[in-house]
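Exercise: predict the fold of this chain.
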Amino acid sequence: MRILSTTDVLARFGKALADPTRAAVLLELRNGPAFPSDLADQIGVSRQTLSNHLACLRDCGLVVAEPAGRRMSYELSDPKLAHALGDLLSTILTVEPVCSCENPGCDAADPAHSVEAGT
């Protein structure tokens, strides 16, 4: 087993969190171990899709598989990951508004401009 640098660890987190399905898996596993079939149902993806994402999360070192009878149960590889995910969720991000209209001169910051209004 090799020791990763801090930047490698963060890169693995970034890869895992960059995909909505993998992020959903990690959030579900904050609640405790789960079977792949249950995770697939809870997240709303096929079992094959979930299997691919679990493989990625295992490769990133974020989840581990534990035998549970004839099945495998998945859990976060370290209990501190649940706390770290909670901290990330409580972070407030400021995002610049993006204009999606056809008018190149429109001001997306203008309160009269809204995507819902179709302007």
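Check your answer against the key: Residues 95 and 109 are 12 Å apart (CA to CA).
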